[in-house]
Hints:
This protein is mainly α and 211 residues long. Helices cover 82% and strands 0% of the residues. α1 (5-29) packs parallel to α3 and α2 (35-52) packs parallel to α7 (172-196). The chain is elongated, with a radius of gyration of 20 Å. Keywords: Membrane, Transmembrane, Transmembrane helix. The chain crosses the membrane at residues 183-202.
Amino acid sequence: MTISASDLLAELAKEWNRIEGRAKEAEAIRGEAIVAAINEMRYAGRRIVDSLSPPPNLLEEDIEQYRVDQLKTAKVYLVNADHDITDAIIFVVHTRVNETLQRYGKKKIIKFVPEFDDLFPEIEAAQDIVKGSREDRATRSAEYKRLAEEYIPKIAKLYKRINECEKLKLDNIEFIKKYARTITWIALLGSIASLVGLIPLVRDFYHWCVG
């Protein structure tokens, strides 16, 4: 079934609002976490604008297909943004938890955050799903949907609990500096990749960072 440009635009509007909501949740965890997603949403926005302003020399019968092509590309960028948000949340929480483990040890963390023992394996499971999705592109969308619905809420809960615990405070200045350096490089590579078609480079760099 062929979808019209107007129907596709309506679909993108709903998807944009959903992803924007997720971005706000990720921003509450760590502001820098949404840098890569914002870049992808910017590219999507550019394509949406282009779809509404076809080239003046385009034949009348070709305008609809032009609009559909631009909007389909915008949809790809929005999917990238959605996945970037998931990747970023996993990365932020993994980094924060590892720093806390190194500083205090698992025994002390469990003393103040009893649910740590149940929630920590969710981070590792989420990372395994992300890595698996890289190897099987056919299941990527379904896997990221599962991550967003089943894993991210638990991971975000663990992050919040650890951050709120006064007994598990870290040197936030050092943590922020370390995290900001990495996320800046990820965002930079994301911009380059989007321009030259090397999106997998960003994914590989992210997974190299989280080990």
